[in-house]
Design brief:
By secondary structure, this protein is α+β, with helices and mostly antiparallel strands. It has helices at about 1-10, 15-40, 90-95, 125-130, 155-165; strands spanning about 45-65, 65-75, 80-85, 105-115, 135-145. The protein has a five-stranded mixed β-barrel with strand order 1-2-3-5-4. A hairpin with a 2-residue loop joins β1 (about 45-65) and β2.
């Protein structure tokens, strides 16, 4: 970087030097604000929520045993979350397995920060999800399904639904 900076100064072109400095300052400020927002979201303490809305795409759900995991858009907070739901009955599991449309879930549950690895060589899920701009986990206790209103992320929902049907 020092060599590049010296090379830039050697050009003695004031417009180029000032332009590069403005771009560097802009990206530095943007990086600093992103880093501060990331730290603020990561320091969330667990809390219970009532009547929240999660937009869940049909191809973003996975069922393993009696645990449903999904990536969802949290409507009220305008951010992605990693969600979990413990399935209670076989009929409910069958219904969730057949879900092939994008839905909005009215949920009640607990919001948690993503956990750091507990062992030295353990895979770091928190860092993995941070790379995908997911900083929170949502443990759903109760839900009700709704259809997505027309026009609200409709084209994206249709693409996810098509992807679910093709798999």
């Amino acid at each position: 970087m020092l060599v590049l900076f010296l090379r830039l100064l050697a050009t003695k072109n004031i417009q180029m030097i000032s332009g590069v400095l403005v771009v560097c300052v802009f990206f530095s400020i943007r990086f600093y604000t992103w880093q501060q927002n990331t730290r603020q979201v990561m320091q969330v303490t667990p809390y219970v929520t009532q009547k929240q809305h999660l937009l869940i795409y049909s191809d973003e759900t996975k069922i393993s045993g009696d645990l449903l995991t999904f990536k969802a858009w949290w409507w009220e907070k305008r951010q992605w979350v990693n969600g979990y739901y413990r399935i209670k009955t076989l009929a409910e599991k069958k219904t969730l397995l057949q879900m092939d449309k994008t839905k909005i879930w009215d949920v009640a549950g607990k919001v948690l920060p993503l956990q750091a690895p507990t062992n030295e060589a353990q895979f770091d899920w928190r860092r993995f999800y941070q790379g995908k701009n997911i900083f929170l986990a949502f443990a759903v206790k109760h839900y009700t399904l709704q259809k997505v209103p027309p026009g609200q992320m409709a084209w994206r929902g249709r693409l996810h639904d098509l992807r679910k049907r093709c798999v």
